[in-house]
Amino acid sequence: MIRWIPLLLVAAMCCAAVGTDQATTKPSSAAPPTTQVSIDNFTFAPDKLVISAGTKVTWTNHDDVPHTATSSVKPRAFDSGALDTDQQFSKVFNTPGVYPYFCAVHPHMTAQIIVK
User: What pLDDT digit, counting tens, does each position of 99-113 carry?
Assistant: First the structure.
């Protein structure tokens, strides 16, 4: 004689087993570390930033006029385009090196990212 186990009991047993397995599984990838650069009063702050490879840098324009974060070397490693007030631009730096940049609208505004 076959006994039928109530469907809810089977579902509960399956979910419990799955939940146990998931609790011991670690995520396969983590978000990259992040850091901020503020654009304010016609300056980049900090104007020299040392980061580890794989770090995401986010620039935020706090001025009332547009600015860019534009790589100084050609070909350009990055270019934010014009950022209006409170707009942001992000880039992940994966390769070690020195990345000088400037504001294309106000070329006297300069800074650099150093990736180790």
Answer: 999 999 999 999 999
